[in-house]
Amino acid sequence: MQYFQLFHAGGKALLNHPTVGLMRVTSNTTVFGLFLLVLALVFTGGCAGSSGNSRASSEPVRPERLRYDNLDLSSFEMRGYDINEDGNDDVFRFFEGGVLRVERFDLNFDGQVDMTAYYDRSGQLVEEEFQLDYDELVDTVRHYESGVLAEKQVSIDFDGRFPLVKFYDTKGELLRIERDSNQDGNVDVWEYYSEGRLVRVGRDADGDGTPEVVNDIR
User: Is 121 in contact with 137 (CB distance < 8 Å)?
Assistant: First the structure.
């Protein structure tokens, strides 16, 4: 029976952020269980933490995807790792000038990349993307600021669009959820949270991009 560590080189564990997760690969059942755990990580909240000062209440600037930042992987040094020792690499790390810039993970060992992590030029994790239904479209994107989950974009219909976006405060606590309920490209529902509890819901009734109807949750 063999044990392997599956983790971000930047210090983020795949299964137990932010410490290094320990994965045991003994059977197909274990591998499938690993994949289910990662799915749970994607769709649930991010880093746990005590409530603290929130980000500014003004609308944040949507972060640009680092994957589009002219990352030429062909010019990077690539290192492969065979996690389950089946003769095929499952983790691929790309370095630029000795600094880790991109990691790709085959989480269920089927030969396809399920998760990609992007790092800035200082080697800090800034973005993760997950492909969950084998169609090569990104289904979930997680953005980090100073190592803390700041925003999560979720594709409800697995079509490459993100009608649900979750925003987090500087402690990683859920702050707000924005929904495009009719998927017309415009946010029409805002959910506000305090200490992990839904406290207010706003709705855009006339399609102008601002909530006219606001209800407090008691």
Answer: no
At 11-66, the pLDDT tens digits run: 554 533 332 233 334 344 444 454 444 445 444 443 333 333 333 333 334 445 55
Residue among 11, 59, 84 nearest 165 (CA): 59
- The Cα–Cα gap between 214 and 80 comes to 51
Residue 32: strand, helix, or coil: helix
Mean pLDDT of 106-114: 90
Q: How many CA atoms lie within 13 A of 149 on its CB side?
A: 26
Q: Is residue 99 part of a domain?
A: yes
Domain enclosing residue 17, as ranges: 3-157
**In total, how many domains does the chain have?**
1
Q: Is residue 215 part of a domain?
A: no
Taking the alpha carbons of 110, 113, 117, 119 in that order, is the dihedral positive or negative? positive
Whole-model pTM? Answer: 0.68
